[in-house]
Amino acid sequence: MATAIMAPLGTWDFHKKDDTQEVPAIESQRGASRLLQHHRRALDAEIEHATRLMLRQRDAEDEVYNQETLDRAIAFLKRHVSYVWESRATTAPLPAIGPGPAKSVDLYWKQSSWKLLVNIPADKDSEATFYGDDYGKNKTEGSLDANSISKTIVSWLTA
Protein backbone atom coordinates (compact mmCIF):
# COMPACT_ATOMS: atom_id res chain seq x y z
CA MET A 1 0.00 0.00 0.00
CA ALA A 2 1.22 3.51 -0.76
CA THR A 3 2.64 5.47 2.15
CA ALA A 4 1.23 8.97 2.60
CA ILE A 5 3.66 11.70 3.59
CA MET A 6 3.42 15.44 3.80
CA ALA A 7 6.05 17.08 1.66
CA PRO A 8 6.30 19.74 -1.01
CA LEU A 9 5.57 18.45 -4.48
CA GLY A 10 8.19 18.30 -7.17
CA THR A 11 11.16 17.60 -4.90
CA TRP A 12 12.22 14.35 -6.52
CA ASP A 13 13.45 13.69 -10.00
CA PHE A 14 13.31 9.97 -10.86
CA HIS A 15 15.51 10.58 -13.87
CA LYS A 16 18.37 11.93 -11.77
CA LYS A 17 21.01 9.27 -11.21
CA ASP A 18 23.05 10.66 -8.31
CA ASP A 19 22.00 11.11 -4.69
CA THR A 20 23.41 14.62 -4.32
CA GLN A 21 20.15 16.51 -3.94
CA GLU A 22 20.13 19.52 -1.67
CA VAL A 23 18.43 18.61 1.62
CA PRO A 24 15.77 21.19 2.65
CA ALA A 25 16.09 22.83 6.07
CA ILE A 26 12.69 21.78 7.46
CA GLU A 27 12.78 18.40 9.22
CA SER A 28 9.67 17.01 7.49
CA GLN A 29 11.25 17.84 4.17
CA ARG A 30 14.43 16.04 5.20
CA GLY A 31 12.36 13.00 6.11
CA ALA A 32 10.64 13.13 2.73
CA SER A 33 14.00 13.52 1.01
CA ARG A 34 15.38 10.47 2.82
CA LEU A 35 12.27 8.47 1.93
CA LEU A 36 12.59 9.45 -1.70
CA GLN A 37 16.29 8.62 -1.82
CA HIS A 38 15.54 5.19 -0.33
CA HIS A 39 12.70 4.68 -2.81
CA ARG A 40 14.88 5.72 -5.75
CA ARG A 41 17.65 3.34 -4.63
CA ALA A 42 15.12 0.49 -4.44
CA LEU A 43 13.90 1.34 -7.93
CA ASP A 44 17.47 1.52 -9.25
CA ALA A 45 18.21 -1.90 -7.70
CA GLU A 46 15.19 -3.47 -9.42
CA ILE A 47 16.20 -1.89 -12.75
CA GLU A 48 19.76 -3.21 -12.29
CA HIS A 49 18.39 -6.69 -11.59
CA ALA A 50 16.26 -6.61 -14.77
CA THR A 51 19.26 -5.38 -16.78
CA ARG A 52 21.50 -8.17 -15.44
CA LEU A 53 18.84 -10.74 -16.33
CA MET A 54 18.67 -9.38 -19.87
CA LEU A 55 22.46 -9.42 -20.28
CA ARG A 56 22.80 -12.91 -18.80
CA GLN A 57 20.19 -14.24 -21.22
CA ARG A 58 21.74 -12.38 -24.14
CA ASP A 59 25.08 -14.07 -23.39
CA ALA A 60 23.28 -17.42 -23.49
CA GLU A 61 21.79 -16.44 -26.89
CA ASP A 62 18.31 -16.85 -25.44
CA GLU A 63 17.22 -13.22 -25.24
CA VAL A 64 14.24 -12.69 -22.93
CA TYR A 65 13.82 -9.02 -23.92
CA ASN A 66 16.02 -6.36 -25.44
CA GLN A 67 17.35 -3.06 -24.09
CA GLU A 68 14.85 -0.97 -26.06
CA THR A 69 11.88 -2.85 -24.58
CA LEU A 70 13.37 -2.64 -21.09
CA ASP A 71 13.97 1.10 -21.55
CA ARG A 72 10.31 1.62 -22.53
CA ALA A 73 9.16 -0.38 -19.50
CA ILE A 74 11.41 1.66 -17.20
CA ALA A 75 10.18 4.93 -18.72
CA PHE A 76 6.57 3.79 -18.17
CA LEU A 77 7.33 2.87 -14.57
CA LYS A 78 9.21 6.09 -13.77
CA ARG A 79 6.49 8.20 -15.40
CA HIS A 80 3.82 6.61 -13.20
CA VAL A 81 5.86 6.58 -9.97
CA SER A 82 6.76 10.25 -10.51
CA TYR A 83 3.15 11.12 -11.25
CA VAL A 84 1.97 9.44 -8.03
CA TRP A 85 4.55 11.41 -6.03
CA GLU A 86 3.83 14.74 -7.71
CA SER A 87 0.03 14.47 -7.71
CA ARG A 88 -0.61 12.58 -4.45
CA ALA A 89 2.51 13.30 -2.35
CA THR A 90 2.91 9.59 -1.72
CA THR A 91 5.32 6.90 -2.86
CA ALA A 92 4.04 4.20 -5.16
CA PRO A 93 4.93 0.58 -4.52
CA LEU A 94 7.63 -0.76 -6.81
CA PRO A 95 7.12 -3.78 -9.03
CA ALA A 96 9.26 -6.72 -9.95
CA ILE A 97 10.57 -6.22 -13.48
CA GLY A 98 10.97 -9.36 -15.53
CA PRO A 99 10.47 -11.15 -18.81
CA GLY A 100 7.02 -11.52 -20.29
CA PRO A 101 5.86 -13.52 -23.28
CA ALA A 102 7.26 -12.87 -26.77
CA LYS A 103 10.28 -10.84 -25.54
CA SER A 104 8.08 -8.36 -23.69
CA VAL A 105 8.71 -6.93 -20.21
CA ASP A 106 6.35 -7.47 -17.28
CA LEU A 107 5.95 -5.04 -14.39
CA TYR A 108 4.37 -6.99 -11.53
CA TRP A 109 3.12 -5.54 -8.27
CA LYS A 110 1.91 -7.89 -5.53
CA GLN A 111 0.54 -6.21 -2.43
CA SER A 112 -1.43 -7.61 0.49
CA SER A 113 -4.72 -6.29 -0.91
CA TRP A 114 -4.12 -6.26 -4.67
CA LYS A 115 -1.90 -7.33 -7.54
CA LEU A 116 -1.26 -5.66 -10.87
CA LEU A 117 0.53 -6.81 -14.00
CA VAL A 118 1.49 -4.44 -16.81
CA ASN A 119 3.02 -5.95 -19.94
CA ILE A 120 5.16 -3.76 -22.20
CA PRO A 121 5.33 -5.47 -25.60
CA ALA A 122 8.49 -5.86 -27.67
CA ASP A 123 6.75 -4.11 -30.58
CA LYS A 124 6.96 -0.41 -29.74
CA ASP A 125 3.85 0.30 -31.83
CA SER A 126 1.66 -2.14 -29.87
CA GLU A 127 -0.31 -1.10 -26.83
CA ALA A 128 0.68 -2.25 -23.37
CA THR A 129 -1.76 -4.51 -21.54
CA PHE A 130 -2.66 -4.74 -17.87
CA TYR A 131 -4.51 -6.94 -15.40
CA GLY A 132 -5.42 -5.90 -11.87
CA ASP A 133 -7.08 -7.91 -9.11
CA ASP A 134 -7.91 -6.89 -5.55
CA TYR A 135 -8.54 -10.52 -4.54
CA GLY A 136 -12.26 -10.73 -4.96
CA LYS A 137 -13.95 -7.35 -5.28
CA ASN A 138 -12.57 -5.90 -8.48
CA LYS A 139 -10.74 -7.29 -11.45
CA THR A 140 -9.85 -5.20 -14.43
CA GLU A 141 -7.88 -5.66 -17.59
CA GLY A 142 -7.28 -3.78 -20.76
CA SER A 143 -4.79 -2.04 -22.94
CA LEU A 144 -3.17 1.36 -22.70
CA ASP A 145 -0.69 3.68 -24.36
CA ALA A 146 2.65 2.93 -22.70
CA ASN A 147 3.84 6.47 -23.51
CA SER A 148 1.15 8.22 -21.45
CA ILE A 149 0.00 8.35 -17.85
CA SER A 150 -2.80 5.87 -17.23
CA LYS A 151 -5.28 6.98 -14.56
CA THR A 152 -6.23 3.30 -14.15
CA ILE A 153 -2.65 2.35 -13.28
CA VAL A 154 -2.34 5.37 -10.97
CA SER A 155 -5.49 4.30 -9.12
CA TRP A 156 -4.03 0.81 -8.54
CA LEU A 157 -0.73 2.27 -7.35
CA THR A 158 -2.49 4.47 -4.81
CA ALA A 159 -5.04 1.89 -3.60
Q: Can I get a quick summary?
A:
The protein is an alpha+beta fold and 159 residues long. Helices cover 39% and strands 20% of the residues. The chain starts with a strand and ends with a helix.
Helix and strand topology:
Blueprint: E1 3-4, H1 27-59, H2 67-88, E2 90-91, E3 96-99, E4 105-110, E5 115-120, E6 128-133, E7 139-144, H3 151-157
Antiparallel strand pairs: 1-2, 3-4, 4-5, 5-6, 6-7
Structure in words:
The protein is α+β, with helices and mostly antiparallel strands and 159 residues long. It has one domain. It contains three helices and seven strands; from the N terminus they run βααββββββα. It has a five-stranded antiparallel sheet. The longest helix is centred in the first third of the chain and has 33 residues. The protein starts with a strand and ends with a helix. The N terminus is likely disordered.
